[in-house]
Records
---
Amino acid sequence: MSEVKDLENEALSQAEPVLPDTAEKTVPTSQGVKGKWKNMPRKKRHRMIRRIIALVVVLAVVVGLIKVFGGKKTDDTQIVTDTVQYGSITSTVEGSGLTKAKKSETITLTTAGTVTDVMVTEGQKVTAGTPLFTVDSEAARTAVQKAQKDVEGYEKQLHTLQKDIAGLNLAAGYPGKLMDVVTLNPGDTINKGDKVATLSDDTRLRLEQYYSYAYAGDIKVGQTVQVSIPSLMSTIPGTVEEVHMVSRITPEGSKLFSAEIVVKNEGALTADMAASATVAVNGETVYPYEAGKLAYYRTGDLTSTVSGTVISSSLVNYLQVTAGQVLVRIDGESSESEIFTAQQNLEEARKTLDTAQKNLDNCNAVAPIDGTVIGLAIQPGSELEANTTVITIADTSTIVVDATVDERNVSYVKPGMSVEIDQWGTTFYGTVDTVSLNSKAENGVANYPMVISVDNPDGTLMTGSYVDYKLTASENDNCLVLPIQCIKSVPLEDGSAADVVFVKSGSRPENAIDITTTVEGVPSSGFWPVPVETGISDDYNVEIKSGVEEGMEVFTTAPTTGTW
């Protein structure tokens, strides 16, 4: 074992030489500090050293606490104050949010099928139009065929109803003369299919004539003829409208063909008048085999296409009408309801067809966007059930962070602000896209949804994770500042509240106010409540916009005391 030296005794021995035994010893009449320390027992000296060290530590702690709480302590009241001074302050907003791709597409098959081929792998980058997979689905094909038939059926139904409802205003389809009219009065009930009149087009009349086959090819459509009307003792021009090679044989054995002649009616012609038409062929007049009778150019029944109640009617026998002239007005509420229903059915059928076609197209899917395959749940041979999500493609070149900002800071956050993003210790920078005006209450605090956009060209910012964000809401490099704890909210006589600081002064400041209550810790004299306008703040200090001036001393706090 090595010997431990008494360094203290060794040092004293080196400082004072040892006298020989024969030398005369001098006994001092009084001892100095050094002598007392030298003659003090070792244990007593060690105890004294430890006490001195403890005292120094206590003093250091007290000084540190005073510096931490700031300000200065008055000698008589134990009150901590601070001085209004110029400084800089930066207000930040912090929170967290969930990352996701700004743009993504998911392909889901709603029909069952069998995977025949898969052309991509998870994590692979693809461009829009890249083939992804093929699925054989009989159900998808059948769904498209059925949906197509439903659409065609509803289109026909709607077309018919729209055509019918036009009959709410029953009108003449062509010019002519009314005959065999039915008397209709307002309020009468009319049913779909009811005949109300016969309409004959007497603006023109038709005459059928037979000619010898010897003139076949000489009498042509569009050729002008002369029509003789014995009862009028006149001849009027006509036009060949049609030629029919019917091969009629006369009792004499002659072979005939027919021609349809049309003549304009100037007002004197009527049906059943006897008439004959001659044709000039190569300078020769060709006569018909026999005379014929004039007939109205066309005749048809005027029929209601809807059921309803008659609103008005102008039906009169032998009334000359024009094309499109309204003759009967009908109230057809049921028809309008049927059309509305048919339109709704057609719209739903078209949506069903679109969905069915999309599902069928997805059986031979291509990438809808540029991006990365982040989800792939199929492989060749897989039997897929209906409503299976098979692949997800995300464009991760831009990431958005769905975050919130609380009601205290939402007014400071604006679109376009720069944002610092931290994901697992890695820093990214983004921009505020939007801040919603609709809040969500959580734990008694209103939070406003915020969307942050981050460029992510190399894909290092991962999706589906929570990240921390931090942004500078506002800053001021030269403003009056005070510690936050200097600001007190006090009630006023009118029931409102005001932010004040208690200014230390021997006399009442001009802008001091009266308050209805006392603030704990503030002395009853020497400190006056002065209203202040505050600005931005950080974790420690607040901006003072008005109310106090640089150099003023204000109350901070009254620290509690205790025993050591």
---
Amino acid sequence: MPSLDARGVASLLREYAQRTALRGGNPYRAKAYSRAADSLAALAVPLDVLIAEDRLTEIPGVGDAIADIITKLHKTGSHPSLEKLRKEIPEGVLEMLAVPGLRPEKALRLYKDLGIASLAELEAAAKDDRIKKAKGLGAALQTKILQNLAIAKSGKGRLHLHRAAALLAHAQDSIRKARPELKRVTIAGDFRRGCELVGDLAIVAEAPEAVKAPNPSPADGLQIRLSDRKHFGATLLFATGSAAHIEQLQALAAEKGMRLNADGLHKGRALVAGEEAEIYRALSLPFIDPELREGRGEIELALKGKLPKLVTDQDLRGILHCHTDASDGTETLETMAKATRQRGFEYFGVADHSKSAYYAGGLSVEEIAQQYREADRLNKRFGKDFRILKGIESDILADGSLDYDDEVLERFDFVVASIHGRFKLDRKAQTQRLLRAISDPHTTIIGHMTGRQLQRRPGYEIDVERVLRACAKHDVVVEINAHPWRLDLDWRWHRAALEFGCMLSINPDAHSIPELDHMHWGVEMARKGGVPADRVLNAMKLPEITRYLRQKRRSLARAA
């Protein structure tokens, strides 16, 4: 049998991970196999070369034990442990693990008790009410399956933005080391467009004309496209996409008597432009940032000279909505504030959980006072160039009220109002719940507005447009939660939020020091949604935001 390539081994390793999870073994081992499989799918160096040179452990997520498994799979196309697991459970059961919230032990029960052995059979059983009648399974599981089947189908084969970033960075580095003759090794595809879920791992590199491009890479693996210097920009443009954006550019080119192909913009036989910026310029367009290239009106805006100047990482001056060990974070207030300051920011907005969030160590009134005293002590030490802003993430209760009395809420510099429970309220009730919270004069920011978790659960049902209009009316800031599992509010609503007059805030929802760096993913989402820096709350400098928050509190006092 011929040896398997990286893609083939990745497929088997992913199967090994899934079957290990179903078997009820160590869950961390199954996750490790899955992460290693993702890394293999993005491999830029041939797998047989890495094996021959004993370099498998250079692959992210691959240690000695997994390296041995990979070698065995590569050489034989199988592994004794995998073959043993295959005898226990049909292949179709593995599909069911793609449904968020369906744990391996439940998938196994569905197979053994109800004979469900595929995703299609699972959907049919849920629609026929067979699951809720089964002992130990029930109506709640059936409802969750029906809700999350769409996520399972849409997210198949796609990686979270932050995970794709790590794999593509490794691939980039590997290519540069293995092929020093290649220049401008540039990441393209969904990732360059800032998509929250990445389906195509693509890299474009400039090669000497004598270097022949390799055969096209498999669609579900890393795609490496080579181009000469003359046509590099056009190749990058097409490799970035989206298809809709490219089609609209081609239509515009045709109107101008030109032809846009993957090798450049042509008029007759002459090459008019081969670099990205040149192509846009030749079409009488300003350069369109990759994040905007979705065919959602960006070309029309460009033609009218109304493209936004997108926010950047460098525009952000402070970090809001962060947690400490006072609730469910891992670090002290002092440690988190210092880490924020070390990253060049001017302020740190602490927003631990409120008292109803007992599961997250929500703060009592006494604990709030204690945190205030600590913040005051630290602020004296930091001086005028850095400040801790005193906030809270107040639970929005079922009736829409906030999770403290007015006299407590009035003490905070800012209040992030968020929903953390009662997700199953109907659309009308959930919308009204949010509207009441927004109308509360103490609310500064609405946190993770829809409650979604990517590839884990859908957001609760709300009338997003109505909620955004209310935020604009009551001067309540809309959060772009930068945690890579959330990225909420969805970027597809950002333009509407801007049009209604909303201010936005890019917040990491950080529970540890490394999570402070999630800010970057929030910036990516803001850019994709067309958000400029002057509409981002924490792009304000320290004097500006303190003045903004002070004025809001004064308005509150006058209203009282």
---
Amino acid sequence: MASKSKRPRYSTHKRIAVPEVTDWLRDVECGRVPACEDMRMLCTHVRRVFATERLWVDRERLARYMGYQRHFPFDLSNDEKFLVALWLCTFREGGFPRWRDLLLYVGRGYGKTGFGAFLAFCMISPANGIEDYDVDVCATTEPQARIGYNDLWRMFEKRSDYFSQGFDWNKVELHNIQTGSRFKYWSGNSDSKDGMQSGCVWFDEVHAYEDNASMEVFTGGLGKKDHPRRLMTTTDGEVRDGPLDDLLERSRAILHGERPDMGLLPFLCHLDGIQEADDESAWPKACPRLLRSPTLMEEYRTEVSEWRDNPQKHPMVPTKRFNLPQGRTDVQVTSWDNLVAASRDFDASALAGRPCVIGIDYARTTDMVGAVALFRVDGEWQVIHHAWWCLRSRDAGEVKAPLREWEAAGELTIVDDVEISPGLVGRWVSETARAYDVRMVAVDYYRLTLMRDALAEAGFDSSLKGDEKCVWLTRPSDVMRIQPVIDSAFATHSIAWGDSPLMRWATNNAKLVPAPHDNWTYGKIEPHGRKTDPFMALVHAFCVSGQIPEDAGPMVVPMPMPL
């Protein structure tokens, strides 16, 4: 049951008389600390909420939480006190937490895991006032999940004479004897997740989650205890179009006043642009702890210097230190910003009857198949695409993408069979050829035998050499020749495939691989869980894009020589 320390006194006013809240607001608003635009908008949002809603800050509870600092090897900074006061101690009418979810998005070195451990301790303490209020820390791997747990465990071990009066603990869980509350850790591979009855679920390093389903399984027990909460702590990372990107998009919509916050408190710290990486005074925008840690600042200086000297060798510095994702550690096909630009819509109905080429790619019919139709319209490459996924693929357990969502959106067909029949792809080619003027179909040289008959039924003859309606067999040399053209299409934002998370995912799963004579070809970042077939189908289509008449735009693509 909730604390009954005093009768709630709800207030609606513009003046917030809680120093733990106002100190950070004033730090940001007066420029005492560098802050990104998202942080300044958060301050505006918080003031607006207090000015328009009936809220109550439980000062007694807050004071007790602040008193727990004496057990930890650090004093809370103004930004941390701000979050404790808002997330754990601010309530709306009915006694419900005003903010039930906290997203802590900060640069590496902030101390987010130690701070998360402090929050966990507060929630399992008597000051919380709710019995059996379990806090479960979760991550994609057990070592990561254990980090936050171990922070508290080590503190208990160092002061065992004090904590043994009210707690039991071991290497797996901490138990408050008085409240019955427990602090435990879980990993993405943990069993019995559905039996969790958490008061709070803490997701550490959200950037590593590839889909929402793997997070939702941990939150199934929320709501069985009063004041259910979610804590999400993270830097940025390499996974795109996953839960973190969804959270960031939602957070910025909240901060811009485009949607209600629905209990989400987004604390976003990052540079406002890569140009600020050259300005040390701006670095605390991403990691406020730099203002109070000369040692951490020196480490930042070293890493940034190394990154400037050799960006390819230290590609994650902007992503991890400044929360400015620049792409994967491998040599990326193109930047994430370019992939987002390619996701703009176009009028597909206007393509009816226009000339195009088709590209098809698959490694195995028991895995994934990708197909695209490539058009040129007023100097822009426009892409219609589809993919098929074999439900019985041996890689099914490795693929974390939201395949069912993509199927519902019409981007993907999930095939519950031993393989993806070539006839399924052939029918798509036939349907495409009826709607558009398909000049040529390109497939991987080594995969033709799987598709020859299906393509023949669709009207495309693999025995023809260089003529219309033929099947072009793409060779590695074709891919190397066309890679600069694809690179230019992304860089100039002259390619569009609609709002397609599937194409973004598949392209982001590919990497550039050095080839002879200073050329590049394409490879997979990871061989099993990250499929590239839809992107490689696009590559095959580009290899024969010279078949599309040059009636719109200056780009000239040389045709390959007949075999």
